[in-house]
Specification:
By secondary structure, the protein is an alpha+beta fold. The longest helix is centred in the last third of the chain and has 14 residues. It has a five-stranded antiparallel sheet with strand order 4-1-3-2-5, with helices on both faces. It is globular.
Length: 164
Amino acid sequence: MTNKSQDRKFVVLLYPDTTDYDCSEVLQRLCGFREYAYILHDSDTLDDGSLKKTHIHVCIRQDTPSTRSAIANKLGIDDKWVQFAGKWSTVIRYLVHADDDDKYHYLPSDIVSNFDVNKFIKYKDDVSMANVIFNQIVNNRCTSTIDLVKWCIDNSCWSEFRRS
């Protein structure tokens, strides 16, 4: 592993209930970055099945390299919440847990971003994608084919829905 001092890509972990910063203000400051995406994780579970503390994952990409502390200062948070990101597509996919069948799968439509995240989110197999579609139908009591088709298109599930 390299010991970087600067990069163009960062991930940030935020807790909405903290008193260390105002989460909504931090999220508003994201508009100063070239690309950003974030999602609220409120359904993650611990090994014992209990819910993890609600948190927000943020991905940031910019044109010029910066330090973790420069990003933290721009956001108004401590730099312990800012890490260098790996491959951009991997961190975007992590937002919905697209590559981890053991974790709760969030929907691409739950992501707030200033770019099209759907081009990065493809589920690794047909079964995972079918589960996402199935959960959408059951959890939202989807009774309209038109609504389901629109949802599948908006959430990168059209190919699987069409084939099924």
